[in-house]
Amino acid sequence: MNPRPIAVKPLKNYELLITFKNGEKKVFDMKPLLSSPLYAPLENRSLFNAAKADGMCVYWNEDIDLCPDIVYTNSYPVPNESAANIWGSIPER
Question: How many other CB atoms are there within 10 angstroms of residue 22's CB atom?
């Protein structure tokens, strides 16, 4: 079983900085999912910025959440966290 998300920070460009129970910090790109009817409401930045993590999954409301295994396996490690703090986003891979 993959580690579960314990904290999430919405970033610019529809990405999420996620902290997992094992201490890893990774970035998950939501852009490919926004074309799906389930995730299309997240194009509203106010809703997108309301992301939460509860130790099991990342979610926005009772209708919109992310599978924690998909989030973990389809995210990339933070290359330089200090850059994320300065720019408000993770540098391009």
Answer: 10
User: Radius of gyration of the chain from Cα atoms?
Assistant: 12
Per-residue pLDDT tens over the stretch 64-84: 999 999 999 999 998 765 555
The tokens of 76 are what?
Answer: 């990339």
The pLDDT assigned to 93 comes to 45
Q: Evaluate whether 24 touches 81 at the Cβ level (below 8 Å).
A: no
**What is the 3 state secondary structure string of the chain?**
CCCCEEEEEEEHHHEEEEEECCCCEEEEECHHHCCCCCCHHHHCHHHHCCCEECCCCEECCCCCEECHHHHHHCCEECCCHHHHHHHCCCCCC
Q: Model-level pTM? A: 0.83
Cα separation, 71 vs 75, in Å, equals 6
